Records
---
Amino acid sequence: MIVQKFGGTSVADTECIQRAAWIVAEKYSEGNDLVVVVSAQGETTDELIDKAGKLNPNPSKREMDVLLSTGEQASCALMSMALEKIGMPSVSLTGWQVGIQTDSAYGSARIKAISAERIKAELDRRRIVVVAGFQGINGFNDITTLGRGGSDTTAVALAAALNADLCQIFTDVEGVFTADPRKIPDARKLEEITYDEMLELASLGAQVLQNRSVEMAKRYGVNLEVLSSFERKPGTKVKEVIKMEQSKISGVAADAKIARIALVGLRDEPGIAFKIFRVLANAKINVDIILQSIGREDTKDISFTVARGDMESAAQVLSEHQNTIGYTDISVTDKIAKVSIVGAGMMSASGVAALMFEALYDEKINIGMISTSEIKISVLVDERDADRAVSAIHAKFFG
Amino acid sequence: MIVQKFGGTSVADTECIQRAAWIVAEKYSEGNDLVVVVSAQGETTDELIDKAGKLNPNPSKREMDVLLSTGEQASCALMSMALEKIGMPSVSLTGWQVGIQTDSAYGSARIKAISAERIKAELDRRRIVVVAGFQGINGFNDITTLGRGGSDTTAVALAAALNADLCQIFTDVEGVFTADPRKIPDARKLEEITYDEMLELASLGAQVLQNRSVEMAKRYGVNLEVLSSFERKPGTKVKEVIKMEQSKISGVAADAKIARIALVGLRDEPGIAFKIFRVLANAKINVDIILQSIGREDTKDISFTVARGDMESAAQVLSEHQNTIGYTDISVTDKIAKVSIVGAGMMSASGVAALMFEALYDEKINIGMISTSEIKISVLVDERDADRAVSAIHAKFFG
């Protein structure tokens, strides 16, 4: 049993769908049970959002989900037709037909359960089942969507529910690279990567797989493979444990879509950090790196990063709470980028951090903040230095 | 309780949807319960058919319905957003959410039942319910569509199921006219028309309302009104009995999308007509006018009309069965048109047929076949004479 997922670029037009259909047909003809998950075609979702925005700049999320889910529904019908054309028995199913039960968080719903009976019945009839990704229904029988990249989550959830042997994510890149191959010509494709490394890479802006889908794959032990629908080459396998890699790190990634906020002159007493991040949490603003440092004369400073789109509202709510939090100054900038290296065995190998910092020093790139975890080291640098930083670090580890 | 249906041209773009939303809001604000049925936007359905055709010239009807139903689903979400924008509480529902149960004739399904509980619950909460037209689900939980113009049927079926006081069909014309106003400048809008007249007019190519929806309205006594969403004028009311009209007929219509087939030299014995029309029925070809005349020497001739698109296949199957049917010659032409007058009280009024034939005689237009019913007289004329015939007949009755 194999679950194959084709992203928006992999079903963008007639030719892409036909290409994808042949990939499916090949695996089916080898005797596998096949479940295929499809995204909306190319720019469809953006076009629908645009259309809605003209009618109502602030439409209800429920109606938005009714609208957006049509994109994947159209894709699954088209894919099924393409499979029929080449003689493959096939049936398309929407989220509600599959029985993908979610909570009611329209626009970013989470899957609660999958009643895969219909899928199993169709597979028993030796049909290829083409499922509309990204969508489900809540307890009121209303349509929900899983948020951007939600089709990855659909694919992994189905692989888990059906106990599939493999979940293949087809996209427009050949796999996971040691750095963004569009910017670093020397970047090389990884044969294997762990779930944890993949999670760090996704959150670092590598944008290969949606984080939720990787978390789910890790939790249920789903064997993932990321590969291209345009070139017939092996992709990157995502697993719990991988064989020894030659290098100590798996990849270098940059994320420029962030902003840094620094609060200066905070009282050095308990509860300050709690107050700050409670205010931000109430405003539904996610915080990434947090750094606390000692300031002048019994004060402390707290800096953190947020998504660039949240910068304005974060500054706004913090200003509103200046008195309760008690800071003297706030500074905000979006002229920064986060550059990170990821590797499962990194921290146990000596000198990895030093090597990274040396690469930046060689290039005379100033480091703004440093944050480390078991498998990741991130630094903030000036936005203009980001590409150069990735290039230098990549050359140092993989060159 | 009012059901309002907006066709594809009435929701074609942002401006059209906004205009429709104000029409809905007005009736809602008067205190009515409102159910709104929408078609797919403008050319959406044709575009989807085109897209499917590129992947598979002969896709399964099941998958086609999954694909096409997305058009109306997108429309109902967009209409609901437009209503929200102007402060109207509103909720969109798809065919399966409403519970529109159909048979399994994908592409031309018939409604078997409507479980309108969800709609009633939403109306009880004083919400405007926006329903995706044209679609339902069958007993397997698969999506079905009702065929071209199926949104009219959805609207009338909902009006019947909900016992609505009125079902308004909004379109791009102001109502039903005594002739096609694009061709006959003197054509005038009818204030009222009977179901039966409307049925004859629709089948004559007037193309205002889908025939099935009128039949259903007649069966369940649904008060229909056909009107424009672009101009705020009273439309045409469709009822069982209407008040006396000044003229004896309601309208003149031409249908050029027909072909005539004549079988000559048939044996004059029982069962011949049965054989001919059984062969055609088996090939799923619908026949309109049938005329039988006496031929030479103990033979008879049978002529009939079919939709122009069916001409080739009709001629084909009849040729294959020439021996069993037993005719000497077959003649086929599509250079003809059907011109008809319709009026509920026509046959009881003397001289109507004579007046029609006089109009044609004045214009020196030759009549090919004549067919009459209780409320209709149709003649076949040369295709090139059709417009002139309508104009002359219209002037004779309404001039």
---
Amino acid sequence: MIEINTPWVQTVALNPPTLQDNTADADRLISALKATIQSDMIDVDLALLKKLPALLRKWEYQVRCIVFKDRHRWLLTGITDAADATTPIAGLAIDLGTTRVVLRLIDLITGRTLVESAFDNPQDAVGPDILARIHFAEQDGGLDRLHELIITGLNHAITSLCATIKLNPQRIYALAVAGNTTMTHLFMGLNPRWIIREPYIPAVNKPPVVKAGAVGVRVNPLARVLIFPNIGSYFGGDLIAGILYSEIYKNEETAILVDVGTNAEVVVGNKNWLIACAGAAGPALEGGVTRMGMTAGPGVIDKIAIDPDTREFKIHTIEEKPPRGICGSGVIDLAAQLYLAGMIDIRGKFLPAQCGSRLNEIDGLMHLTVVPSDQSGTGSDLSISQADVDSLIRSKAAMYTILETITASVGMALKDLKRFYVAGTFGSFIDPRSAITIGMLPDLPTDSYKPLGNSSLGGATLALTSADGLEKMDRIRDRITYLELNVNQEFMNRFSAAKFLPHTNLALFPSVKV
Amino acid sequence: MIEINTPWVQTVALNPPTLQDNTADADRLISALKATIQSDMIDVDLALLKKLPALLRKWEYQVRCIVFKDRHRWLLTGITDAADATTPIAGLAIDLGTTRVVLRLIDLITGRTLVESAFDNPQDAVGPDILARIHFAEQDGGLDRLHELIITGLNHAITSLCATIKLNPQRIYALAVAGNTTMTHLFMGLNPRWIIREPYIPAVNKPPVVKAGAVGVRVNPLARVLIFPNIGSYFGGDLIAGILYSEIYKNEETAILVDVGTNAEVVVGNKNWLIACAGAAGPALEGGVTRMGMTAGPGVIDKIAIDPDTREFKIHTIEEKPPRGICGSGVIDLAAQLYLAGMIDIRGKFLPAQCGSRLNEIDGLMHLTVVPSDQSGTGSDLSISQADVDSLIRSKAAMYTILETITASVGMALKDLKRFYVAGTFGSFIDPRSAITIGMLPDLPTDSYKPLGNSSLGGATLALTSADGLEKMDRIRDRITYLELNVNQEFMNRFSAAKFLPHTNLALFPSVKV
């Protein structure tokens, strides 16, 4: 078991007071801690101070202290019996997604993950997306209800999570929360009203470090809650967490980090500078538009290969269950394979001769059957329409244009990027070869592509397991230059050029050969 | 109206956000404040953060900020409309006495006193003194009850105080509390149990700055509460406040500060060093032992003159009401005058020939009638017994011995002291001439004696009206060397020599001539 290099848990052996050495209990402990952590700035909470004299005597002045570094000082957050070294002292990393919330319980001494869990964001009950929730927050009691929903959801999850490893939630002394700007606001109970109204101003960019008790999270009420800062209404703490996790902010080489979704958020940079932007890519990349589109799950098509000679489809589904639908990475595979098999042209139009009997007109729109009804898990054909492909092409063109624009803004070309991080589930499932083939991602060596997985949770974990997590997230936030994407003539020209497979300028995609 | 030099209230004119300047509300405000108060360390409370966006818009980004300096950072505690410059932004200084609590409401912008009030400490209901209360605190629910009593008492007083000037208590943004170590503990809800048990350890020497809401004081819940630190169980924050108020900690010349009571607390020092001690002087100096003794009030004898030739008594009472009793300063005057009139000898024994018909034996003990029944306000003789005088002499001898011991400990003599501060009501009423005559205070020029009045309240006021009040109180506390008074042979020798009027060594009291 490797001890990580964080100062959160300090074992302190005090000399009990005597007539000659009569410093008060709190001052005695803090003075010892000052020497240990080499800081003069340690505060103690009144609630802990009340318990301190009895606890110090009970444990004969041999204690473990949980200390936490705020922005401007250290805080003594808890003390435990030094003799009890078996019960973990825990931290909780939270990826606070609009749709899904993921929790990771961490041992604050070893840095080891104790257990993880996830649940659907219960705010979905009042609105599936940010916009609906912000409107709901404006109703009477709406904000309180949204705050309560997420906190109650978290509390249920924490109770279950702790139960699985028989840990008292009071042993959780630190939290790190990464979420988009709206979710972060709702978590704190801040009114998100102005986030969606010009000029789109959050209540706060750098949230204060708060006590768990102050937001209602049922762990140790004095547990400090680190909340990732945001750049603005549309570039949230989840992305700052991603940057922290990807480490692009500390490398010499310039890298790019992309979080793909309805909104594509992109960061380009290195240890000297960071530039970020966010833009609408459309829901097609998430598999959201096709009638057969769905999020990843058992029976969902995640990989497709089409034999270029026989045009036979080889379909892979998650858990190899009968196919029920297709996810974002499956759609990209499908488009790439259709293109390589000559079944769609460079504009993405179905070529009837090559598609053969798979192509049928339904309601005046051409549809390509991906899985016939007798092989599907739904009993119906799974098909993709011309409109779906058109939509995918617009989305991938928007994505590529955003990547090209941000890279050009710092005088670089996409081919200059040494590493290309793709965040999220999408990043884990996507086949870079397919994404390159359709011209959604630039034609870099495929080993440049690094899926990051849940980088929001990864960043939150790092915030708890690094001594300088808070400084790092603040520094990353402050160093980012936010590029406002103006949909001007240049952008439109780039977009038009990208609306082909893989691109109008084939020289940009030398590896794609039909 | 002179503006004092405190930074607590800052008027900030912000540029409202635009698409080009889209910093969040809180960060916008804090950034402006950082420039104004020239500190990078400003935190904002979550409770205030929740209200911030709506308030900033309501007041069109023109606000007054109440900022408060903690030990390690600044805190944005409140914001008000910049256009409303008439309603005061207030602070509350509290002298938290065991017997009596005094409040002073202060305008935080001008430093001006708005209004004052006082009330009897309602904890008296469970115990008149510290010891009784600490024992009560150990009963089930006892500590909570004591905490609740003082907080409820304060809340009633605050409500009345604010009503007299029609101020909303929410406009009180800062508190400073000076009290002895036990009272300070009870105010915070800290268990005082170990204060009276060897080795006499308080829970805390330097209390954290807490929120009013956290201790239950009903002012603005975010108001910061500065609590004066203590040196130990028997040298409390009220004395640190006294040192702050007396300014002895910043003068070149060495001065002494005495707080006279059942316990005498003494500080000697200058800008380079401070030494302190506390010792039992006995209740006689407060008028507590004589049967006719009482605390100052209408009809209480505070001054006495005896014509050395006619031995006629000239008696002055408070508010010139018929005499009902005698207070501490009256007892000292009486003893000095009896001695100067030759009615008691150097050991304090009544001289029957000189006392004449005033002297009577009651219950085997000689009593001197100070006010005969036909002139008294009680209808009975007001008299002082030989035992009373003996007790006074022991008390004054103990007092003088403590003064001599602490001064000698730094290699000085009492005559080297340039200023002699006497704190409290006692200090305001006492006639230094009489105190010198009986040898309670050293024979310094009478203009060396400076009554300080309520120096605890004065110090608390300074803490709110100085930019560096908190640093000062911490620095004073840290600089004090506490002298443990050992009742050794030397102390006993000094005490024996001081048990005469004015002293065995008359050379120490050249101005006292019988």
